[in-house]
Design brief:
mainly alpha; Multidrug-efflux Transporter Regulator, Chain: A, Domain 2; two-stranded antiparallel ribbon; DNA binding; MerR-family transcriptional regulator
Length: 144
C-alpha cells in the first residue's frame, strides 16, 4: 500500500510517516521506482509509535525504544558515574516520564487547593459547592 493509504489506516498524515522514517522509527520498503510501500507489519509498527506518543512519550523517547520495537532485547546502558547503574532504556524512559507526570499531578493538585481556598476566602458561600467538590475521577482511577 502507498503512503496515503497507510497514513489513513493508522490515523496519521503522510507527512508524519515521512518524519517518523526520517527519525529512524521505522523504514519503509521502496518500489522499483522509489515509492514507499507499506505492509501490515509497517502499520503495526506505526500504530505502536503513535500509541507511545499519544501516551506522553516524546519522539526522542520513542527513538530510544526502537530496539525493543524491533523485537531485540533492550540494551543495558553503562554506569552513570554518580554511583548509579545504567539501566534498560525502556525502564529509564518510562520511569522518567511517570515521575514527570507524578510531579505535574502534585503541582496541579496544589494549585487546585490554592484556588479553592482563594475562592472560598474571597467569595464564601457563593463558591462553597464548587470548592468542596472533589476532583473528578479519571479513567486511570477507575481502572485501579
Amino acid at each position: 500500500m502507498r503512503i496515503g493509504d497507510a497514513a489513513a489506516a493508522v490515523g496519521l498524515t503522510p507527512r508524519a510517516l515521512r518524519y517518523y522514517e526520517e527519525r529512524g522509527l521505522f523504514t519503509a520498503r521502496r518500489s522499483r521506482v522509489g515509492h514507499r510501500e507499506y505492509g501490515a507489519e509497517d502499520l503495526d509498527r506505526l500504530r505502536a509509535v503513535r500509541e507511545l506518543l499519544d501516551a506522553g512519550l516524546t519522539i526522542r523517547d520513542v527513538e530510544s525504544l526502537v530496539p525493543v520495537l524491533d523485537g531485540r532485547p533492550p540494551e543495558v546502558g553503562p554506569a552513570t558515574g554518580d554511583g548509579g547503574a545504567g539501566g534498560c532504556p525502556v525502564e529509564n524512559v518510562t520511569l522518567r516520564r511517570l515521575d514527570g507526570l507524578d510531579q505535574a499531578i502534585e503541582r496541579l493538585t496544589a494549585l487546585r487547593g490554592r484556588l479553592a481556598h482563594a475562592l472560598d476566602h474571597r467569595f464564601g458561600d457563593g463558591f462553597r459547592t464548587a470548592v468542596a467538590r472533589q476532583p473528578r475521577e479519571t479513567p486511570v482511577d477507575r481502572a485501579a
